[in-house]
Amino acid sequence: MDFLHADAEAERDPTAAIAASLERVAEEAARLGDPGLERAAAARSAQVWRIRGDEAAAAAATERAARAMAAIEAGLSKDMAEAFAAHPRNATLRQVLEAREA
């Protein structure tokens, strides 16, 4: 529920407080073992930080979203993982992981 509220608020007014709220959601999702929610919250947090001009915070949040995406992908069959990775949002996160590995 916190994610839905913060996501809606981010659309109306992307403040640092909203980005921090999204980061807390991502942290709680990770603690609970929910990589889907962690990925969504971290990706949205990255968007808010980027809008606010904080590239370091945006990069950290994007990295977190990429790690969560990789965790999701690891649990999928090969065919599903390929389709999942091909989605434009996931393809962008895949580039983050590949750059880190290079």
Summarize the model shown.
This protein is an all-alpha fold and 102 residues long. 86% of the residues lie in helices and 0% in strands.
What does this structure look like?
The structure is a single chain. The chain starts with a helix and ends with a helix. It has 102 residues and is mainly alpha-helical. Helix content is 86%, strand content 0%. The mean pLDDT is 92. It has one domain.
Summarize the helices and strands and which ones pair or pack.
Elements: H1 2-12, H2 16-32, H3 35-51, H4 55-74, H5 78-86, H6 88-101
What are the low-pLDDT stretches, counting only 5+ consecutive residues below 50? Answer: none
Oligomeric status of the shown chains?
single chain
Largest sheet: none
How far apart the termini lie comes to 37 Å
Rg value: 13 Å
Helix/strand structural class: mainly alpha
Q: How many domains is the backbone divided into?
A: 1
What would you call the shape? Answer: globular
Number of helices: 6
SSE order, one letter for each helix or strand: HHHHHH
What's the number of extended β-strand segments? 0
Strand content: under 5%
Q: What do the pLDDT scores average to?
A: 92
Q: How much helix, percentage-wise, in residues?
A: over 70%
Which structural traits does this protein have?
mainly alpha, 86% helix, 102 residues
